[in-house]
Amino acid sequence: MAPVVGIRAWPRPVLLACATLLVAGVYYAAGRLGLSQQLTADGAVVTPIWPPTGLALACLLLFGPWCVPGIALGALLVVLSLGNAGPETVGIVAGNTAAPVCAWLMLRAVGFRLSLSRLRDGLALVFLGALVAMLISSGTGVGMLLVSGKLPMEHLGIVWLAWWVGDAVGVVLVTPLLLLLYRARLPPPSARWAEAAGLTVVVGVLVPLIMYSSVSVMFLTFPILILTALRFQLAGGIPCALFASVMATVTARQGAGSFGRLTEIETMVKLQAFNGTLGLTALLLSSVISEQLNTRRSVERACQELVEALQHLNAGGPGGPGTPGADAR
User: How far is the C-alpha of 167 from the C-alpha of 148, rounded, in Å?
Assistant: First the structure.
C-alpha cells in the first residue's frame, strides 16, 4: 500500500493576509478605473461612477466581514495615490469602509437574497445599500475635506451630491454584476446563445451611436435596456446599463454628443441623473421579471405535482390496476 503524503495547509493568518491583500488590490484597481473618468464641475473634480463601493459591498455579501481590512487598505491606497494626504485621510478611509459595512448589515437585517430574484431585494439594494448607506461615505468625506480646508464652502453642495450619487451608482451597477458573475454557470448550447449574441451586437453598435449623436436622443437607450432586461433579466439588464453608463461618461468627458453645449454643472447633473436612472431601471425591472418567472415556475411545478398525485390516486382507486382482484372475472 502506497504511503499517504500529508498536505500541510497554510496557516489561517497567512490565508487572511493574502485574502486581505487581494481585496485591497482589486479595490485599488477599481478606484483607479473610476478616477480615470473624472469630471470637473465648478472647479471641483468628481467621479460619476465609483466602482469600489459596489465591489466592497459585493465582497461583504459573498465572503463576510473578513473583507473589511482589505476594503480599508484599498481605500487608503486610493487616497494616497491622489497625493497631498493629510489628517483627513483617516476620516475619508473610515467613511469609505463604514458605508459598505453598514449597507451589508442593513441588507442582512432585511433578508436580502444574493440572487436578486425578488423585487424586495432590488428595492433593498437601491434604497438601503445605495441611497442610505452611501450617505455615510459622502458625508464623512466631504466633511473631512471641508474641515481640513481643502474644499471651499461654495463647492460643498456640488461635491457632496457628486460623491453621494457616484457611490450609489457604483452600488447599483457594480454589485449586481459581481453577484451575477459569482453565480454564473455556462448554460448548454441553445437558441438563446444566438439571441444573446444578437442583443450584444445591437447594444454595442446602437448605444455609442446614441451617445455621440449631436441630437439629444439619450432616452433611446431605455428601450434597448428594457429589451435586454425582458429577455435575460439581470444577465442582460445590468451589463447593458453599465455599458451605457460608461459610454455616457466617456462622452461627457469629451464634451461630445448631447453634452457638447452644456456647462460643467449641467453636464454633471445630466450625467448623474442618466446613470442613476439607468441603474434603477435595470435593477428593479430585472428583479420584477425574475420574481414573476420564479412564481410561474413554482405554480407550474405545483400543478405538475398535483397531476401526478391525481394519476397515482386514480391508478390505485376502485377497479384500477392497483386494486386487488380488479382483473378477476
Answer: 22
What pLDDT digit, counting tens, does each position of 146-160 carry? 888 887 888 788 889
* pLDDT tens-digit readout, 164-173: 999 999 999 9
Beta strands 44-46 and 39-41 are antiparallel
pTM exceeding 0.90 = no
Query: What residues contact residue 27 under an 8 Å CB cut-off, 6+ apart?
Result: 52, 55, 56, 70, 71, 73, 74, 75, 77, 78
Residue ranges of the alpha helices (H) in 150-256? 156-183, 191-212, 221-232, 234-254
> Dihedral of CA 94/100/105/106: which sign?
positive
Backbone angles phi, psi at 112, to 5 degrees: -65, 135
Contacting residues for 106 by C-beta, under 8 A, at least 6 apart: 124, 128, 129, 132, 133
C-alpha cell at 28: 485599488
CA distance 72 to 99: 11
Quick one: cell of 244? 451605457
| Burial class for 191, CB neighbours closer than 10 Å (0-12, 13-18, 19+) | exposed
Grid cell for residue 139? 458625508
Please state, in angstroms and rounded to a whole number, the distance separating the CA atoms of residues 38 and 253.
7
Residue 123 exposed, middle or buried by CB count within 10 Å (0-12, 13-18, 19+):
middle
Task: Point out the residues of the chain with pLDDT beneath 50.
Answer: 1-7, 323, 325-329
| Domain ranges, ordered by start, for the chain | 15-183+191-314
Q: Which residues, including other chains, have CB under 8 Å from residue 234's CB and lie 6 or more apart?
A: 116, 176, 180, 283, 286, 287, 290
